[in-house]
Description:
Elements (H helix, E strand, L loop, with lengths): L4 E4 L5 H11 L5 E5 H16 L5 E7 L3 H10 L7 E5 L4 H10 L5 E5 L7 H6 L6 H15 L3 E3 L5 H7 L4 E4 L18 H6 L4 E4 L1 H4 L4 H11 L1
Parallel strand pairs: 1-2, 1-8, 2-3, 3-4, 4-5, 5-6, 6-7, 7-8
Amino acid sequence: MSNPVYLALDVPQLDAAKALAEKVKGHVGGLKLGLEFFCAHGSHGVHEIAQVGLPIFLDLKLHDIPNTVAGAMQAIHVLEPAIVTVHASGGRAMLEDAKAAAGEHTKVVAVTMLTSLDERDLAKQGIGGTPHDHVMRLTELAHASGIDGIVCSGQEVGAAHKQWKDGFFVVPGLRPAGSAVGDQKRVVTPRKARDDGASVLVIGRPISRASDPAQAARDIEATL
Ligand SMILES: O=C(O)c1cc(=O)[nH]c(=O)n1[C@@H]1O[C@H](COP(=O)(O)O)[C@@H](O)[C@H]1O
């Protein structure tokens, strides 16, 4: 089985991001580039990181009216990302149009509820119920829209997987036992997420901030 870990390259400088990717490339299955990186380096930056030779996950978390999101999806065709994110709360028409505009080999996945949020945050947004309820509702919406899968925390991926057997599940908010949680609130270990059905494990700081990132990536790989 190929390595399900995608390293989140949340590093603003292109050279530093590339150097980090080169260090860990033998121990991860892909590289995730976020909005911070894309705003700073655009398509050129994505091409540079693609030279490392791993699949690219372009985490843009698009959330706008359907026409605008479809236009953005078309504009990134040329980059041939393996995975692109949109927000499930953009609604069914937005999800459908995002998928229709995506490249043939790009998986479109919808962020359900950010792993940095908990039930109290939901209540403050006027959304009742538990994170589990909210993620399940948005999973149903994403499934019905015909996109490829969702992003959720490891606390919900087991239930989401049962609800959507052939869905593609991206799980961030992962922490090896004993590592700092930081701003994440719904956290599990990489192993638990994989056992519960995650297709992709997104891991950033536990690798990128380690004194030896390659060793940290190897240690995580050994637990899977
Ligand atoms: O879409 C994402 O990748 C994402 C969704 C989510 O709910 N939570 C989340 O943390 N992420 C991303 O996953 C990565 C997690 O990084 P670490 O917390 O450093 O492991 C970051 O790049 C986040 O942008």
